[in-house]
Write a structure and sequence with these properties.
This protein is mainly α. About 50% of the residues lie in helices and about 0% in strands. The longest helix is centred in the last third of the chain and has 18 residues. The protein is globular.
Length: about 150
């Protein structure tokens, strides 16, 4: 597999997934994204579709508040439909599964330079923060007296 960067579409497998999304009918694109996320969550052993799941999660994150454009020439050229809200939880769960994968041959092993693996893991963390930002807790409300 060719890997040239640490972004969600910076490898051959994710670029092929982008091509599959471009080739799919607009109404089938969400099903492709959902399928790869669910299969990654449900996988036992080696995470065969981890690269595609990271790419799919990035596409979901783009549509979330705080999501930013992918900024990569290797992502899908076709516009994605508005995704169902439940994909956020699936994308987050798939990314958690990938981040926790300790398989020596897993996606994190794609880089010889440890700094690249660290940057890749930071990308996963940023995506997860957009998919499920930490809740803001109001500790108490202040009401003016006398009004």
């Amino acid at each position: 597999m060719g890997t040239w960067g640490t972004g969600p579409f910076d490898n051959d497998t994710a670029a092929d997934f982008a091509d599959a999304l471009d080739d799919a009918e607009p109404g089938a694109r969400e099903a492709l994204v959902r399928g790869v996320l669910v299969r990654t969550i449900d996988a036992t052993g080696y995470l065969w579709e981890a690269d595609e799941a990271v790419a799919a999660a990035a596409l979901v994150a783009v549509q979330c508040p705080g999501g930013v454009a992918l900024g990569t020439p290797c992502g899908p050229e076709a516009s994605m439909p508005p995704f169902s809200a439940d994909l956020r939880a699936l994308a987050d769960e798939a990314l958690a599964r990938i981040a926790d994968d300790e398989d020596a041959d897993g996606p994190a092993s794609n880089w010889v330079d440890p700094a690249d693996e660290k940057q890749w893991r930071a990308t996963l963390a940023r995506l997860r923060a957009v998919l499920y930002p930490p809740p803001s807790l109001a500790l108490f409300e202040v009401h003016p007296q006398g009004n």
